[in-house]
Write a structure and sequence with these properties.
With about 325 residues, this protein is α/β, with parallel strands linked by helices. It has 2 domains: about 210 residues, Spore Coat Polysaccharide Biosynthesis Protein SpsA, Chain A; about 60 residues. The chain has 11 helices and 12 strands. The chain has an 8-stranded mixed β-sheet with strand order 3-2-1-4-10-6-11-9. Helix 7 runs parallel beside helix 9 and helix 10 runs antiparallel to helix 11. The protein is globular.
């Protein structure tokens, strides 16, 4: 089903910023400051605390701007459950998700408001970004050519995402509310929910990449993505996502393409297994090795599953 997409040509883009928070007291004030510093004021915001225990709730409760709605989960429900809950409270045409560690550039909304009417068919927009460290210093600059790339929905971009991984960036994303309501995130995928959403959405929605750094994305040792790299809890989930999406569309991927997907993932996981082994984490390395083999065998598994489906087994 194709999500409804407005084709209005208004020069403004009313938006609700959704900021999910879990123990983000260290950098949340900077994220909020970057929102309040926007050169345009026609926005709303939903701040949703997911059971924080570090003072994040006090920071949220201290916000007095009338454009901000404050929500609090009872306990920790997870990132994507929090996003689903917050989006249900939004009533603007667009949703911009901002992660608690990151910060918008002051002209973020100016740029997005200029881009939207030029590409009324786009359902989701994301931009280039700078990467900053714990102290807010830029250590990797994003490209700033100003070019745009429109990604037409269909099988081809879906296959590209299977090969490349999650090239869409959730923080700073600018997405039609109707798309997020029609194709909601899956709350049962705490580590790969953004990737699974991208794979589903690319088949039916137009994406637009804008090569202009409009936000800073922070990388630091205490964030969840860093912990995922250490524990590798994302790997079984990513396998599940890839296996499920191929199983739903077996006719859209050849055995050779599936082999390339499995081989690329095998190499990535095998590299992490070797890195764990070099650090003396033998049990973890062996566990990673089993997942690397599973990715390598994925094409054979999907071929057997497809044959069984065709003969009615």
């Amino acid at each position: 089903m194709t999500p409804p997409v407005s084709t209005g040509t208004s020069t403004s883009a009313p938006v609700t910023f959704v900021i999910p928070v879990f123990n983000g007291a260290s950098f949340l004030p900077m994220a909020l400051e970057s929102l309040l510093a926007q050169s345009r004021g026609d926005w709303r915001a939903i701040l949703i605390d997911d059971g924080s225990s570090d003072g994040s709730r006090r920071i949220i409760d201290a916000c007095t701007d009338p454009r901000m709605l404050k929500l609090h989960n009872e306990g920790n429900r997870g990132l994507y459950a929090s996003l689903i809950h917050a989006i249900a409270h939004a009533d603007t045409p667009w949703i911009s998700i901002l992660m608690q560690d990151d910060r918008l550039h002051a002209d973020y909304l100016d740029h997005m408001s200029d881009v939207v009417p030029k590409y009324p068919e786009a359902g989701a927009i994301w931009s280039a970004h700078h990467v900053i460290d714990e102290r807010g210093h830029i250590f990797k600059e994003g490209a700033s050519s100003g070019r745009t790339e429109l990604i037409t929905p269909g099988v081809e971009p879906w296959l590209s995402a299977l090969h490349r991984g999650c090239f869409w960036i959730i923080s700073g994303s600018f997405t039609r509310r109707e798309l997020l309501e029609t194709l909601p995130f899956r709350a049962d995928l705490p580590h790969c929910g953004d990737y699974e959403w991208l794979l589903r959405s690319l088949r039916c929605a137009m994406f637009l990449y804008y090569e202009m750094p409009l936000l800073d994305i922070r990388e630091h040792p205490s964030q969840a993505s860093t912990a995922n790299l250490h524990t590798a809890v994302d790997i079984p989930e990513s396998y599940r996502v890839i296996e499920d999406t191929i199983a739903r569309h077996p006719g859209d991927i050849t055995f050779a393409e599936c082999l390339r997907v499995g081989w690329r993932r095998f190499r990535l996981v095998a590299h992490r297994s070797l890195a764990a082994s070099a650090r003396g984490r033998w049990a973890h390395a062996a566990w990673l090795g089993t997942w690397a083999i599973r990715f390598l065998l994925l094409p054979l598994r999907m071929r057997v599953a497809g044959s069984s489906h065709r003969v009615g087994v």
